[in-house]
Amino acid sequence: MKYANTVINNGVEVVLVTLPLEMVPAFDPGQPPPQAYAVADEVQPGWIKQSDGTFRAPTPADLPAQPVPQRVTAYQAKAALMDAGYYNQIEDFVASAACPPRVGLAWREALHFERNDDKIYLIARNGLHIPEAELETWLDNMFIKAKAIT
Q: Rounded distance, CA 1 to CA 87, Å?
């Protein structure tokens, strides 16, 4: 058994620190102070206290959602698209007669891309054939990936 001290973060009780139980001689498991527990040896900092009093490792669903950047540099956007395997498709679309001239100009000349720009939607829809039902999520994910590129 170990000693665990927790904090409440966004309404969720999370293990802050664990120590061998013998390092906290004044700890009485029968009458613990608030947010102090005797826990199983496998419990680690970051684990979440469940409603039944047990602790579990966090899952991806427990992590806060990443904010979607509203603007990325052209380099970041194009590198993210290249990493995902979409770059050449877009280049082919932009070079085709199906691409409106201003969309092609924006693709080639823009210094930044804005998340809600109609030209971005047009490229994703018509150049990559991203289904309408998946478009918002796909764009959000691409902007998040792009922002991480340095």
A: 53
Dist CA 90 CA 130 (whole Å): 12
C-alpha distances out from residue 36 to 8, 10, 24, 68, 85, Å: 12, 18, 11, 36, 49
Can you spell out the DSSP letters for 28-71? -TTSPPTTEEEE-TT--TT-EE-TTS-EE---GGGSPPPPPPSE
Q: Output the pLDDT for position 5.
A: 92
CA distance 73 to 77: 6
What would the pLDDT profile of 76-101 be if each residue is shown by its tens digit? 999 999 999 999 999 999 999 999 99
Q: What is the pLDDT of residue 65?
A: 77
Q: How far is Cα 4 from Cα 42, in angstroms, rounded to an integer?
A: 11
To which H or E segment does residue 111 belong? Answer: none
Residues in CB range of 40: below 8 A, 6 or more apart: 1, 2, 55
Residue 108 to residue 2: CA distance in whole angstroms? 59
With a pLDDT cut of 90, the percent of the chain lying above it is: 78
